[in-house]
What does this fold into?
Amino acid sequence: MMFRSPIKHCRNCGTTVVYRIPDDGDTRERAVCPACDTIHYENPLPVVGTVPHWGDQVLLCKRNIEPRWGKWTLPAGFMELGETTEQGAARETDEEAGALFEMQGLITVMSVPRVGQVHLFYRAKLLSEAFNPGHETIEARLFTEDEIPWEEIAFRTVKETLHRYFEDRRKGRFEVHAFDIV
Amino acid sequence: MMFRSPIKHCRNCGTTVVYRIPDDGDTRERAVCPACDTIHYENPLPVVGTVPHWGDQVLLCKRNIEPRWGKWTLPAGFMELGETTEQGAARETDEEAGALFEMQGLITVMSVPRVGQVHLFYRAKLLSEAFNPGHETIEARLFTEDEIPWEEIAFRTVKETLHRYFEDRRKGRFEVHAFDIV
It folds into this structure.
């Protein structure tokens, strides 16, 4: 859904771009239009999600989409223009799990430079055990820490966030964990 | 440097795009190519920076670029592909202030939905009082909290981050502050 194909043509006029360092003091190669001088920047993207929890259980979603079809994940997706990270995380939780919940604090901030992403996860307190997952989810289910299928978790960001959540829960104090997935 | 002009042509083949909701279950209008079916996504961008500090002073940079030419700011800029948020924040500090420093913890995570950005600031401990600002900076200078020209600060994200930094410093305990600039 978010694979970015290489920029071959100018977004403004359609001319074939050239890759070079712009003359404005920049230090990186960009796709530059030789006709209208438009400079095309490509930057990392924010991904936002939640750890929905109910008592000592957390909600995981079985992916109905590639990549990692059939693996378990937390509700998360690309942040959209016009929303905050928290609103984006809530939207994804609604779309993928169809859960009733209340947003809580930020728990992880993770850079994933290999894919050009920054992931931010919030805790979300579930208000009901009834889920209505969207088309991207095969099944939404609650797991205790011991029940989590650790070998079947779709992404390392999800695994690391779940570990931080359960660790903080044991300590009785939640904080923001900032680290990199390299 | 990062104004994004509207997408008028396909990045892949140069054809004029149409704005519509793609047929893949998406719920938002995207620039879609009627010739090669490329879907063009536009998402918020991460901005990364630091609060460089020296004793009870912080380093501010007087902007030599628009917007807000001549106003004071913290070193910050758009995160680049291939780097982590912390690496990006360090790079911007090096480029804009030319300071010797050591990176420390994350201090603010701010959504700015009006401009489609997420700002992340880290503390950075200065290791010297010698600065060598780049072309984007007129002057780099240390200020105590009382000396800061609050009315001449370029952005609200910078003002809010400075307030959090000095508050935490007084408390003797730094934490991550996540909030929105709306």
Observations:
- Residues 45-180 of chain B form a domain with the Nucleoside Triphosphate Pyrophosphohydrolase fold (CATH 3.90.79.10).
- Chain B has two domains: 1-42, 45-180.
